[in-house]
Structure formats: C-alpha cells, structure tokens
Amino acid sequence: MVRFKNRYVLCEVVSEDPRCRQCIEDRALGLAVRDAITRVHGDYGLACCSISFTVKYLNAYTGTVLLRCRKDSYRLLCSALPFVRCLESRAQRYPCFLNTLHVGGTIRTCQKFLIQYNRTQLLRLLQNCTNEEERQCIQKSLLSCSLTEEQSQSGDEEEDDGTE
Amino acid sequence: QNIVTVCFSVGYSAVALNHVIDFKEKKQEIIKPVSPSELFPSLPIVQGTSKRIKVLTRLTLVVSDPSHCNLLRSTSANIRLYDIIAVFPKTEKLFHIACTTLDVDLVCINVTEKLPFYFRRPPVNMAIDRGIYFELLYTPAIKDSTMRRYTISNAISLMQICKGKNIVISSAAERPLELRGPYDVANLGLLFGLSEGEAKAAVSTNCRATMLHGETRKSACGVVYTVKKPRKVEEEETAVPACKKAKTQA
C-alpha cells in the first residue's frame, strides 16, 4: 500500500511558571522545536524533519502537545526534543521543558494513550485534593471518560485545570 | 527539594542526591549526608505503581592525585553512610586505578572538557567485569553548545571502547528545569551512539544494578560477620537431616 507513514509524538510541556501554560501557541511551539533541531542536527536535520512537520493538537490547560513527522526522521526529532529550553511567545520567554510521553503511528493510538495517562493523572490529583467539591468533580470526570467515536479532543474529559 | 518533586511527577522511581568533594584544599572532611527524611516528611508515590520513591545519597570524589584515593580506604564512618560512591578521575593513571582496584560504584566521565587521555581497553574491560558503571552527564549538553560537542565526542569515544555496556546517563541538574524525563534521556542515549535497547537500559536496568552494587558494597561488612560464625550454619545443616530421619522413621 503506497502511503506516507507518519509518527505522532505526544509530549507534555512542564514549566514552573503557571502563566506559561496559558500562553502556549502552536506556532511558538513549532518554532521552538525547529530551533532545537537546528541546534542539534544542523541544516540537514531541520530539512529532514520539516517535510511533514506540524503541531497537530495542543491543549493549553494540561500542556499536552501532539507533533507529527515522517517515520524516517522521527528519531532526529525525538533526540532533539530534550534540547528545547524555552518557549517564546508575544515577546516573552518562558523556560520550560518537554517531556515525551508516547510515540505512535496514528492519532488514534496517541489518543488512547492520552486518555489512560489523564486517568492516572486525575487519580494522582485526587490524592492531593483538599476540597470535597473538587474531589467529587474529579471522580465524576474519571467515571465518564471514554473513547468517543467522533475523534473528539481528549481535552473535553478533564475539568480540573485550575487545581494544578 | 523542588527538583526532586519534579522528578517524581515526570516518572522516575529513584533519585540520588549528590555531594561533590574536591581536593583542592589541603584537608577536607567528609560531611555526613543529609538524610532524605529531613527533606520530605512523607515520600510521594511513583506514578503508575504503588511503591514509594527512593531517595538515595551519593558521594562524588574528584581525584587528581593518587593520594586522594586513600580517603576511600580509610575507615571514616561517614563514607559508609552514602549509598553510592562515584569517583571522577582526572588522569589516565587514576582512571586505571579506579577501574581496577578502587571500591566504587561509578566512574564519572568528564563531559565539560576534552579528555586529556584516551580510553584503553584493559581497564575498561576490568571495570565491566567488576560491575562498575561509567557515568555520563547530560545537563551541560542542554545548557551550552561547546559542552554539547565535548559531551558527544567523549561519549562516542567511550562507546567505541566499551561497546555500549555498563553506561549510566544521569543529570547533574541544579534547577528543576534542567531535568528531562526518562524517555527523553533514553533518546539522548541514541545521540551518544548507543543502540535503542542499550539506551533504555542505561536509564533503567543499569541504574538499578548500580544501586544494588552500592548496597552490596555497604553490606560487605556483613559478609565478614557470617564467616566468623560458621557454627550457626552447621547447626542448621545438622538440623535438617534429623528432620528427614524422623520422617522416614515415622
């Protein structure tokens, strides 16, 4: 079957500054990743990786990012991701780092992984909850998350963004 | 303490806190390590499993002179309190001594400047037989471009001699933002010339082996005690045949 094979890399943006997450934009993130690839692998690396490189999905509340690249060059991309140091958007620099969670061949597998990962994160947050209301909120969202048929963004399944 | 909290949220299951001892001053005493329970009243749980996170203490000795190695052989009680001991040799002779005779768990490889000596096969092979691991740091590579070149060139020259065995990749992070997740560190290992399986091992199984090596080194005194009391073992052995006899007679 002749078709272009892609790899989808799921990452999480971790930062100390709470404002950083709200200002994540797909263009800024794409630029930061390309800049890291240039620094590590040079012009050849950047050219290889940017054949089919896009930021497919971005969730500003949880800091989840889904990147796409060609199967032949995903190793170059993955080895350059630890070198992303800061994110620039609207003339402000936010120091942060990307934590790779999962590499998959399709968006659907990445989504399945993301749902499981969010479930464990919610469980972890449940332990740190102090308010009874928040606790009930999280429990409700835990019981209701599932893989829906119409490829809806998994960002709809979390409700507790402010408690991070 | 912040760094350790970020570690746990990213997915590591054991963290070692490092003290570096440099021998530029004339006399230096080894300080007692900070107990992990002082930092955390209750250790958080690892993501994904239900075990608590381990926080270990580690000592790094920067040796540039053979007389500094005597400190390791001394019976100072404070050394025994550290879980892992690492040595950072600066000359070829010291590298040879560290790989062959010194009682350490890790040998640190310099990543911040061009190596003054080339690795040779005999001491490296002896270290692999003894169960000593070579350590590479990755935080200088993230910070600075020239450091990155030295890191990669030193790492690749090490790989060519030891064929990727017994490597541990660790961070010397001083701030929580210099840390990277375990999957990312394994990908960094690919840059250093490791194969994919070796890179993942460098982050997981080799580190666990180092921890066990440190524990066996600590409990080496315990082995001496069992040798001193052989009678106890013999008594146990004699007890077993008596039971067997009783069974057969009954």
UniProtKB/TrEMBL annotation, chain A:
GO biological process assignments: rRNA processing; tRNA 5'-leader removal
Keyword tRNA-binding found: no
Lineage top rank: taxon: Eukaryota
Entry keywords, A to Z: Nucleus, rRNA processing, tRNA processing
GO terms for MF: ribonuclease P RNA binding
UniProt cross-references to InterPro entries, sorted A to Z: Pop5/Rpp14/Rnp2-like, RNase_P/MRP_POP5, Rnp2-like_sf
Subcellular location, principal: nucleus
Location of the protein in the cell: Nucleus, Nucleolus
GO cellular component: multimeric ribonuclease P complex; nucleolus
Function according to Swiss-Prot or TrEMBL: Component of ribonuclease P, a protein complex that generates mature tRNA molecules by cleaving their 5'-ends. Also a component of the MRP ribonuclease complex, which cleaves pre-rRNA sequences.
Subunit details: Component of nuclear RNase P and RNase MRP ribonucleoproteins. RNase P consists of a catalytic RNA moiety and 10 different protein chains; POP1, POP4, POP5, POP7, RPP14, RPP21, RPP25, RPP30, RPP38 and RPP40. Within the RNase P complex, POP1, POP7 and RPP25 form the 'finger' subcomplex, POP5, RPP14, RPP40 and homodimeric RPP30 form the 'palm' subcomplex, and RPP21, POP4 and RPP38 form the 'wrist' subcomplex. All subunits of the RNase P complex interact with the catalytic RNA. Several subunits of RNase P are also part of the RNase MRP complex.
Family, as annotated: Belongs to the eukaryotic/archaeal RNase P protein component 2 family.
The protein's name: Ribonuclease P/MRP protein subunit POP5
Organism: Peucedramus taeniatus (Olive warbler)
TrEMBL record, chain B:
GO terms, biological process: rRNA processing; tRNA processing
Keyword hit for rRNA processing: yes
Gene Ontology MF terms in the entry: RNA binding
Gene Ontology, cellular component aspect: nucleolar ribonuclease P complex
Keywords: Acetylation, Nucleus, Phosphoprotein, rRNA processing, tRNA processing
Subcellular location field: Nucleus, Nucleolus
Pfam families recorded: RNase_P_p30
Domain of life, source organism: Eukaryota
Transmembrane segments: none
Subunit-structure text: Component of nuclear RNase P and RNase MRP ribonucleoproteins. RNase P consists of a catalytic RNA moiety and about 10 protein subunits; POP1, POP4, POP5, POP7, RPP14, RPP21, RPP25, RPP30, RPP38 and RPP40. Within the RNase P complex, POP1, POP7 and RPP25 form the 'finger' subcomplex, POP5, RPP14, RPP40 and homodimeric RPP30 form the 'palm' subcomplex, and RPP21, POP4 and RPP38 form the 'wrist' subcomplex. All subunits of the RNase P complex interact with the catalytic RNA. Several subunits of RNase P are also part of the RNase MRP complex.
Family: Belongs to the eukaryotic/archaeal RNase P protein component 3 family.
Record's function text: Component of ribonuclease P, a ribonucleoprotein complex that generates mature tRNA molecules by cleaving their 5'-ends. Also a component of the MRP ribonuclease complex, which cleaves pre-rRNA sequences.
Name by which UniProt lists this protein: Ribonuclease P protein subunit p30
Organism: Peucedramus taeniatus
Classification of source organism: Eukaryota, Metazoa, Chordata, Craniata, Vertebrata
